[in-house]
Fold this protein.
Amino acid sequence: MKKTIAFCLSAIMMLSCGAGDEPSSKTKGTKKIDNKQYELPFSREYSGGSPVVTIKLNGCSISNFIWDTGATMTSISSLEFASLVKNGKITDNDFVGNMKFSNATGGVSESEVYKIKEIVIPCNGGKELKCYDIDVAVEEDLGAPMLLGQNVMQKLPKCSVNDLKQVIVFE
């Protein structure tokens, strides 16, 4: 009986990590294609100095995500959310619930939260980092900045910012 339970738990763990794909050593739900360094290009266009990156949410490429180490949760504007819904990338079934958030100025607001099935972080050389089943807050403001928060960063390999090359380097 104990062997059967152990086998079932092992099988479930393998399937949740991508069945054969090697997950990152940091957490399950993220994978690297190989063991080499990955470099994510960024700019500092309008973000007040924070890196700005392009990522994919459920297969849709979205520019101007601020790499925000101070944000607890990843957030998108309602404009981007509407585009994802229009393209069938988010449905009512992805709705998680409403949550209250405090911002950097101390203000509190409530946002709808949706589950994003896959976030792809495209790196130089065609390499990718992938995270699965990530909660994302939808900001009511059409022009709200999109923030890549700690709920994604914690699933990624250790990284550092190389300002000279304008890349975030993942180990």
Observations:
- The two ends are 41 Å apart (CA to CA).
- Confidence is low (pLDDT under 50) at residues 1-33.
- The first strand starts at residue 30 and ends at 32.
- The longest helix spans residues 2-16.
